Amino acid sequence: MPSSTLLRPASVLTAAALALSATATGALTLTSTAEAATGDIRMTVAPSAFTASDGTTWAARSGFDGGDYSRSYTSGTIKGATDSRLYHPELVRFHSWARPVENGTYRVTLKMREQWWTKPGQRVFDVTAEGRTALSNVDIVAAVGKDAAYDRTFDVTVTDGRLDLGFPWKKDSPLLSALQVTRLSGTPAPTPTPAPTPTPAPAPSGAVVARVGATSSPVKDAAGNTYEAASGFARGDVWVAPSTIKNTPDQQLYRPERVRLTTWSRAVPNGTYDVTLKMREAYYDGVGRRVFDVAAEGVRVLKDVDVFAAVGKNAAYDRTVRTTVTDGKLDLSWTSKVDNALVSGIVVTKASGTMPSPTPTPTPTPTPTTPESTTAPKAAKGKLSGMHWDSGMYPMNRAGEVTKWEQNRGRKVDVITVFPSRESWGAMQSTWFMDGQRIPAGYAGTLDVGVPLWPNDGNLATAKAGGYNAQWEKLARNIAAKYPNAYIRLGWEMNLPGWKAAAHANTAEDWKTAYRQAVTSIRKGGPNLRIAWVVNEGPGQTGTPDARVFYPGDAYVDHIGMDAYDWDPRYTTDANIAYHRDGAYGWNFWLNFAKQHDKTFVLPEWGIARANPNGGGDNPKYINFVYDWMLKNRDWIAYESYFDETESYIRSDLFTGYNPAASAEYKRWMSLLGRS
């Protein structure tokens, strides 16, 4: 990034899309404006409370199970909105929302808008309320187009003291700007002397009282039983294993997990119940890596649960316990000892006279140990493009842009630049950036993955102490499962102060220690992943001009590089080009640093910056310089990726008609860069 003031879109900063949506079935009210009625709950998805132009206050975001928050691209008008500011924020990639409420009937209004996608079918999701579908196939663009307010309203009855909403994903992910919950008039008021609530009729012995899955979507097992969408959990993050789960035909039940959960509850008649926890270990491959206890009704019923020790990795593991409920609510709790507790499903059955027989535990197959890699192996460069190095682009998180780029430049893409979300570890572990809407079907290249040294809610002290090591290993496994040789641009542009995980001169040693912790864990999860240490071109802005003080050592780096855009000074004169090429902390400076450490050089972000006042406009001279320089140094270049962005903060896009001179120059170079 050229400067801390030149920002990537929110899709790159924390979330891939800036939009909101929802659709409904049943008794729904569709409104075209953003009017807020009086209600029990008004909530924006922004982290701070908001007062609308009509004086109503919208509370800060709470109750969501995760998600990525972004501010709008624009402060402009949202069509059909009484107050556009209410629709500017968005939350995406979340699964559920919950709030304790009194039992009764409520009207829920979801407030949305789409600022990212432009065509129907590009973002589609459902909404569930209390485990039942309330809105089907929500598609904002199909309903009202882009940049327009879209409100959907439905009614729901709560009987368990908590309102649970789920958001099953279909295309891309759900999004939301605000929500409102109003208790409907006509709900019986409490009488001065309330009568005791009748105890519900007990279920017959052996009857299933609840089947609950780990995600926001219902799922059926092989026997045809439906597991309702996740509800009753106090917290937890959802992750879906990429591997087949052994010892079960129910892949859709066991592959998802809810991890970092603490409690689960369900209103039930008083009585005795058998509770079956359905689990599998799809992440760790050793005994003692994940250990936890489970309590039912405040009494510990399972001690030192270690799924891997029992059945190995990627194998179904069920444990059944018996508990007696005397207060009308079944309560389970998990105590994590090593790493975090997990569960894939819960089944509650009215107890018969004897405990059911436990599921036989298969003997685990020993897992071969893969030696740790010290450096990533070298791979053939330019295999798809036919160029001297891996060549690619940042496609704005849209698979279709990759295809268009290949068609226009006349060469395949070797590498696609992506940015996982970074609001929290839960957000960073989401694999949305590798799904079919971001990566074209049949793509045979690799990825350039830009990740900070810790998420926005993290800190240097924890990173230095290795507190995020398990998270790094998990993220690496997720990436390596699809792209085993991906470039991991860890802590990129650390010399810019705008990043929350920037490196500062007064804590340089701590930052380097944190970097080494992360690399060691990444290589455990993906031994062939390639670590790229990448600065921003020019003097650093974090207490020292020289970013070399942040270099963690050769053992922890596979490639050295920089990001460099056409600006400050713009590449429009020979003198300015010489400044960038030969000056301190410029192109030759960092190439020579790479050579000194026997590392190949990478250029993961480069591009014109026509929309920036300090940029060189539609500048073919910049394109010519970049490729001429790389061709002269081709034996040292590992990969380059053009930052192709149509948003108004930069307008670096090629082949769209907006920058014809730069586009023509880029295309001219494509005919010159083939390997002989």
UniProtKB/TrEMBL annotation:
Occurrences of domain GH26 (ranges): 365-676
Which cell locations does it reside in? Endoplasmic reticulum membrane
Is-annotated flag, keyword Endoplasmic reticulum? yes
Chain intervals with Pro residues compositional bias: 189-203, 357-369
Q: Which residues form the active site?
A: 493 (proton donor), 605 (nucleophile)
Q: Which residues form the signal peptide?
A: 1-24
Quote a single Gene Ontology cellular component term: membrane
Instruction: Report the PROSITE patterns cross-referenced here.
Output: GH26
Q: Which InterPro entries match?
A: Galactose-bd-like_sf, GH, GH26_dom, Malectin_dom, MLEC
UniProt cross-references to Pfam families, sorted A to Z: Malectin
Picking any one GO molecular function of the record gives: hydrolase activity, hydrolyzing O-glycosyl compounds
What name has this protein been given in UniProt? Answer: Putative glycosidase
Q: What is the lineage of its organism?
A: Bacteria, Bacillati, Actinomycetota, Actinomycetes, Micrococcales
